[in-house]
């Protein structure tokens, strides 16, 4: 059975219109996020992972959406994206995601990327049970 992974991040459609995201990541737009997510997902699937994506808004419904995603399946790995973690305005959302993961998926490994294109590397750091990934 392939390891299951949930990638959690901001809905790319919101990135271009959010002042805090524009300030935190001035060089990143929605298209760059989508492209990076697609490439990382394809790479992880090549490596044998089953990948689900949970896209969030800036907080209004984020916790409920995340809880529903975690309740739907047991995940081996949860990756919380840099867009949530590195935007100072979203620190409360990041805290909710970490604590909800501890509550609903205590056995899942947490990993963190630094951009949408570095997700595979983040997962490889935290999946030591697998054979070395090339």
In short:
Helix content is 47%, strand content 16%.
Kindly report the oligomeric state of this protein.
Answer: single chain
Name the helix and strand elements from N-terminus to C-terminus, one letter apiece. Answer: EHHHEHEHHEH
| Shape descriptor | globular
Q: Span from first to last CA?
A: 19 Å
Main-sheet strand order equals 2-1-3-4
Number of strands: 4
Supply the helix-strand structural class: alpha/beta
Mean of residue pLDDT? 87
Task: Please tell me how large the radius of gyration is.
Answer: 14 Å
Poorly predicted tracts of residues: none
Biggest sheet: strands, sense, closure? 4 strands, parallel
Name the beta content range: 15-25%
> How many domain modules?
1
What is the helix fraction of residues, given as a range? 40-55%
Tally of separate helices: 7
Explain this structure.
The chain is α/β, with parallel strands linked by helices. The chain has one domain (about 20-125). It has helices at about 10-15, 20-25, 30-45, 60-70, 80-85, 90-105, 120-125, and strands at about 5-10, 50-55, 75-80, 110. The longest helix has 17 residues, at about 30-45. The protein is globular, with a radius of gyration of 14 Å. The model has no long low-confidence stretch (mean pLDDT about 85).
């Amino acid at each position: 059975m392939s390891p299951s992974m949930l990638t959690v991040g901001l809905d790319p459609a919101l990135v271009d219109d959010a002042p805090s995201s524009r300030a935190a990541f001035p060089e990143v737009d929605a298209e760059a996020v989508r492209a990076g997510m697609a490439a990382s997902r394809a790479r992880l699937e090549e490596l044998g992972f089953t990948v689900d994506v949970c896209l969030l808004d800036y907080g209004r419904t984020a916790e409920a959406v995340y809880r529903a995603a975690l309740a739907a399946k047991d995940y081996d790995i949860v990756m919380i994206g840099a867009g949530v973690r590195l935007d100072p305005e979203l620190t409360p959302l990041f805290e909710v995601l970490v604590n909800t993961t501890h509550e609903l998926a205590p056995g899942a490994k947490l990993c963190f990327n630094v951009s949408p294109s570095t997700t595979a590397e983040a997962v490889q750091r935290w999946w030591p049970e697998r054979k070395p990934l090339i």
